[in-house]
Design a protein that fits this description.
427 residues, 24 helices, mainly alpha
Length: 427
């Protein structure tokens, strides 16, 4: 890098580290790059670079390196350590550690020596981390253990309310909020209404809307679904929506099974140069699967490959299910190979589903090729020793209707295995 004379600006460094993150590059190589660029006199990393570097290290369980980086950053510019930084670090620890609740809280306390203002904002970052990892019981216990050390505010309760699926738990926090003199806002009510709706307690949901009106709190876009007006209003005030903002609308469209509105929102998002995150991609790809829109699913996948956003492993499982169900063997093979070329490991369940289609199409060359590629990630995969040349049209024209008897039962069994793994990931 020194010999090229290329000026490594914050923008360039941000993009390189982002590429490291989404391509699952060597974490220690990324750290070396981060240190080398940061050691220059008068140079300061951006908050984005710091948080991305910490995410890369956390994903690889390099927790000692995380604290080394934070100590060095504190010496140079402690203002780079933000509540977002707290959340990134705690999120990796909570996700990967078997004793996550203890280590998460211990790590949270370590930030007291690093963070300029260790206050309720940091406390909220801890709770948000636990809620996002679906550890609601942990979030509840941590809240009650630490609430006397901080001053819980409206955001604290909204974070906790947003994670509960149990109306009883949500109502408990709602009551505690009111007892502490914290006035609920439209977000607080929306969280409670959402819990009631998911639990089919529509009477309570309508009563809560009535209570909102009694307190002069107007229902917002989430309560009435008027998404585009709010986006227009935000843009008119030069408040550019980010991926998290868009996800609020994707969630509404997903639960209402509205693919058309979701796709239009996706196009608007891309036109605004706001790249979707993994949640956005999952809402879209699942809707494409429901509506059997192979063309839109492949367009989304193509954008992900070209622009490097979203989780390839999560999206690909849903994509391969759709392609296999629709008998799109050529497209499934192409996407599978693209994924491997990017160094991403397809799931073994997806590999088996595509392999079944190839066997039915008598595509022995394709089976051998995919087996060889998959064997790099899964040593247990057996690579066929012989290959019989296939007729290309057999694969292209193959459809689900051609599968009969034992073959159909084998495909259904693979689908059930896949659904089991999906449900386990949710748990």
């Amino acid at each position: 890098m020194k010999s090229t004379g290329v000026f490594l600006s914050n923008d360039v460094i941000d993009k390189v580290l982002k590429k490291f993150r989404f391509s699952h590059g060597n974490p220690l190589g990324a750290l070396e790059f981060f240190k080398l660029t940061g050691d220059r006199r008068g140079f300061y990393h951006s908050p984005f670079s710091l948080d991305t570097m910490l995410y890369i290290l956390g994903r690889s369980r390099k927790f000692d390196h995380i604290w080394d980086v934070l100590v060095e950053i504190k010496k140079k510019d402690r203002n780079l350590i933000s509540p977002r930084t707290v959340q990134v670090v705690l999120g990796r620890i909570a996700k990967l550690c078997s004793v996550r609740i203890r280590m998460t809280v211990e790590s949270f306390r370590k930030f007291k020596k690093l963070f300029p203002e260790f206050d309720t904002t940091c406390f909220n970052a801890l709770l948000r981390t636990l809620c996002q990892e679906k550890s609601m019981s942990d979030a509840r216990n941590v809240y009650h253990r630490l609430k006397t050390e901080f001053n819980p505010n409206l955001q604290t309760f909204n974070i906790l309310l947003s994670g509960w699926k149990s109306a009883e738990e949500a109502e408990s926090f709602f009551r505690e909020m009111e007892e502490m003199g914290v006035k609920p806002d439209v977000v607080s009510y929306n969280c409670l209404i959402d819990v009631y709706c998911k639990g089919s307690e529509m009477k309570k949901a309508y009563e809560m809307i009535g209570k909102m009106r009694d307190e002069d709190i107007l229902p917002d876009v989430i309560t009435i679904g008027d998404a585009y007006d709010l986006l227009d209003e935000m843009e008119g005030k030069e408040l550019n929506p980010n991926s998290t903002t868009y996800n609020l609308f994707f969630r509404v469209f997903y639960w209402s099974n509205d693919l058309r509105s979701s796709w239009n929102l996706y196009l608007r998002m891309m036109d605004a140069c706001c790249l979707p995150n993994t949640n956005s991609c999952m809402f879209l790809i699942r809707l494409c699967g429901r509506h059997e829109r192979v063309d839109l699913a492949l367009k989304l996948w193509g954008d992900m490959v070209d622009k490097s956003f979203g989780s390839y492993s999560l999206v690909s499982d849903v994509l391969f299910d759709l392609l296999c169900d629709m008998g799109k063997l050529v497209e499934a093979e192409k996407c599978f190979l693209e994924m491997i070329e990017m160094g991403q490991k397809p799931s073994f369940v997806s590999f088996k589903r595509i392999k079944v289609l190839m066997e039915l199409a008598k595509d022995q060359d394709g089976i051998r090729n995919l087996s060889e590629k998959m064997a790099v990630f899964e040593p247990s995969v057996q690579v066929p020793q012989t290959a019989v040349k296939m007729v290309p049209e057999q694969a292209k024209n193959y459809s689900k209707d051609n599968i009969h008897g034992e073959e159909l039962r084998e495909m259904e069994m693979d689908s059930n295995v896949h659904l089991f793994h999906v449900n386990m990931r949710k748990l």
